[in-house]
Amino acid sequence: MVSAGEDRFNPAGIRCFVRVLKIGRELIFLIIRNIQTAMMKIALSILCVLAFAQVKGSDGCSNVTIISRAGWRARAPKSRLAISVPVGNFVIHHTAGGSCTTQAECIGLVRGIQNDHMDNRRYDDIGYSFLVGDDGNVYEGRGWENVGAHTQAHNNNKKSFGAAMIGNFNAKLPNTKALTAVKNLIACGVQLGKINTDYRLLGHRDVSGTECPGDRLYILIKTWPNFRYSPSG
Questions:
Q1: Within a domain: residue 105?
Q2: What is the pTM of this model?
Q3: Tens digits of per-residue pLDDT, 52-82?
Q4: What is the DSSP-derived secondary structure letter of residue 139?
Q5: Are strands 160-165 and 130-132 parallel, antiparallel or unpaired?
Q6: Ranges for the N-acetylmuramoyl-L-alanine amidase domain (predicted)?
Q7: Bridge-based pairing state of the strands 87-94 and 195-203
Q8: Which residues pair with 228 in a beta bridge?
Q9: How many of the other CB atoms lie within 10 Å of CB of 49?
Q10: Do 48 and 135 have their domain in common?
C-alpha cells in the first residue's frame, strides 16, 4: 500500500514515459526534415519549369524569348499534324482584340484566345503558330512542328507559319519590343531551318478576305524584307 506523501509513480514508469517523449520528439524532427526536403524538391522543380518555359524554343536563337506552352499553361490539343519544313511562307496576323504589356496580361489573353479557338471555333488547338505581345515575348502556339489553323486559303497552313500580334492594329502599331520580337522570331525560324532563307512574308489579307493584320501594321510589314504578295499562294 502507498502511504500518504509517497511518490505514486515508480521509476520504471517515469523512464518509460521519458523514452516515449524522446521518440516522439525524434519523430517530429524527422517529419519536419522530410517536409523541408520535399518543399525544397518542389521549389527546385518549379524553378526548372520556369527556366524551361523561358528558354524552350530559343534553340540558339538568343535574340528572341519564346514562352513555351507549359509557360502559359496551354490546354492539350485535341490532335496534331506535323508540318513539313522548311516552309516557304510566313504570315503576319493580329488578334484584333486587346493588347498586353506584361507577361501576366499576355498569358491571360493567349489562354482566352485558345479557349475561343477550341470551344467556339472548334479548332483542335489555338490556331496560330506563335503570338507576340507588347511585353516583347513570343508565345508558343502550335510551334515549329505542327500545321496551324491561321490561314485557310490556298492550303496555306501546310506551307506557312503564322504569328499573331496581340492587339488591334488598324489604327496603331505594336510597340517596338513586339515588332523586334516578331522579326527575331522569323530570323530564328530561318536559323533553325524551319523557314526557307528566301521565304515570302505575307499579311493575312494577302491570302484571305480579311482586314487582318490591321491597316497600320499591314502598311508597315510591306516595307520589311521578303514581303512579296502574290494571290496565287
A1: yes
A2: 0.74
A3: 444 444 445 899 999 999 999 999 999 999 9
A4: E
A5: parallel
A6: 74-214
A7: parallel
A8: none
A9: 13
A10: no
At 96, list the grid cell.
484584333
Q: Tell me whether residue 88 is in a domain.
A: yes
Helix then strand then coil, in percent of the chain rounded to 5, is 40, 15, 45
Q: From CA 107, how far away is CA 129, in angstroms rounded?
A: 15
Instruction: Give the C-alpha separation, 224 to 213, whole Å.
Output: 14
Tell whether 39 and 78 lie within a shared domain.
Answer: no
Residues 165-210 pLDDT 10s: 999 999 999 999 999 999 999 999 999 999 999 999 999 999 999 9
Number of separate domains in the chain: 2
Spatial neighbors of 109 by CB under 8 A, at least 6 apart, are: 95, 97, 98, 100, 133, 166
27 within some domain: yes
Same domain, 143 and 48: no
* 195 to 69, 78, 174, 190: CA distances (angstroms): 21, 26, 23, 5
pLDDT digits (tens, 9 = 90+) for 212-222: 999 999 999 99
Q: Report if residue 194 sits inside a domain.
A: yes
The enclosing domain of 121 has a CATH number of 3.40.80.10
164 closest CA partner among 88, 76, 65, 91: 91
Structural Rg of the chain based on CA atoms: 29
Provide the residue range defining the domain that includes 203. Answer: 66-221
- pLDDT for 32 equals 76
The per-residue pLDDT for 44 is: 58
Which pLDDT band, with edges at 50, 70 and 90, does 41 fall under? low
| 21 and 97 part of one domain | no
Residue 109 shares a structural domain with residue 178: yes
